[in-house]
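Please review the protein record below. Let me know how this chain folds according to its tokens.
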Amino acid sequence: MSKVKTKHICQNCGYESLRWMGKCPECDKWNTFVEEIEEKKTRHDLFILNKENDKPIPINSVKVVEEPRFSTNIKELDRVLGGGLVNGSLILVGGDPGIGKSTLLIQVSNEIAKTGKKVLYISGEESAQQIKMRGKRLNVDSENLYIFPENNLSIIEKQIDNLKPDVIIVDSIQTVFSPEITSAPGSVSQIKEGTSKFMKIAKSFGITTFIVGHVTKEGSLAGPKVLEHMVDTVIYFEGERYNTYRMIRAVKNRFGSTNELGVFEMRDLGLVEIDNPSKILISERPKGVSGSVVVSTVEGTRPMLVELQALVSPTNFGIPRRMATGVDYNRVNLLMAVLEKRVGLQIQNQDVYINVVGGIKLNEPAMDLGIIVSIASGFRNIEINQDTVVIGEVGLTGEIRGVSFIEKRILESKKLGFKKIVIPKNNLAGLEKIDGIKIFGVENIREALDVVLGG
């Protein structure tokens, strides 16, 4: 009898070792190695992507065929996916527990099924009764939507072959297991095997497939990084669990841009699209208080106006406290250093708190001037005019650098009734006059503070 060969696999990154190690040399995580039986793959297990050509061909001889797309009937999701779903694509959906991934996908299933396409919803976490209860609450009642509570990959493959669906949804990939592999569901080997099987099904039969992935406490998708490399699209469902707003971002998309953002609101009857996020995010802006400013950001092709708040108060301890929600903490510290050095604002003994209203996370440099202005307003206790929007990237010398899509930002501000906008002076070149809104070009943060706060 031949000896059973085993190997140790890091459950965080997929690194393989012949012996157990306390710390993974690849990802530097501790106690992540699990012993698994080594499986030998035959040639028949491999999925051959190129069946027509078995030799290299010139790029000029390759015929380009436009990928056919179909809509999910959810505009915000279509925007993130690049205009709709591509036949045979494999989409990985990640997000924190309880954020609404299953709610989103059951709604997507229902909308696609209403168009006449056959949808198979596979759940390894919920029973048919549980799915039906949620579906009843969300008014899901399409005859073309089939639910299948199962996590055995062999049984799932047979049912897919029998039903021949147009769209498959797997909730979640961590619960699916192959009986041919001895390791437990959720292990690196099982996740890789399950994903490769669904990739083979998607590409071979042209079935659009969604797979849900759990996330770790650090916020990244659980399992090896190769999971993200195998799929065509990776989208993250973001938002605070106890906040009503949810955002969808694509961090990888072979069929479109990765800069788009979809915005939803979680209500009793499920997720509702928000066509104009700017109006919602600034609708409850307070009046007569300092430290509140409206900034303009662009996510993909969509300009959005967001309220940025700053609270500055004397510290009660030797070391002042700094906190930032929705923007990069290190960037805020850098901008406060610029304020102290270039303007002379003495905030080294002040606690500073920055918050982006609505639970949205923004990383765009065009937010810099808004952070500077809100901190200065909070420190000097001067209210910023309600009709003002601030845009600009700030350098270490205090200069205001130009930003992209300036016309879109200005037109969005005008549409929502703002009368005054502060932009980098470099963006004035070539900018046509826009009636109904005053545009102020500034070169440095001193000029910007003079315009916004009046000196």
